[in-house]
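EI: anyone free to look at a 150-residue chain?
SC: sure, send it
EI:
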Amino acid sequence: MRGGLIVAALGGALLALGACGKQENSAAEADATVNAAGFVPPAVTSRVDFSSAMERRFRTLDRNGDDRLDRTELPRQNSRLMALDRNGDGEISMIEWSEGTIKRFDQMDLNRDGTVTSEEEKEWRAGRRPAPAATGPVLGEPLGNQAAEK
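SC: here you go
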């Protein structure tokens, strides 16, 4: 009886391993088909995800942990990141970093839907900028449809 259970367990394990191989082959075939078609799925980043990634980047750069980045902590001495230093004290605070990186995200979000796709980022890097935000009715001004009622 005991030997039969062991044989059954081994047989079940072999069947499971055999099924895994078939799935890997079908996944590899699917990948080959996608790659042959030249399809690359777009990457989509939300504002929250971008903000979290930028905060992690700040923490990585801030080697001394003082919540400020000075020139010695930046990847390059003449880094464009110093443009984020709005008060001109020679350091980038966490607030300056967050405001600057979110501003960049908003510039890349060409259709203003709160996400940036890889296509939007590519267009932004090529020089396209979002259209100005539409403005709604101004408080105190008559709505445009009142003229049609007369």
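EI: The mean pLDDT is 78.
SC: 👍
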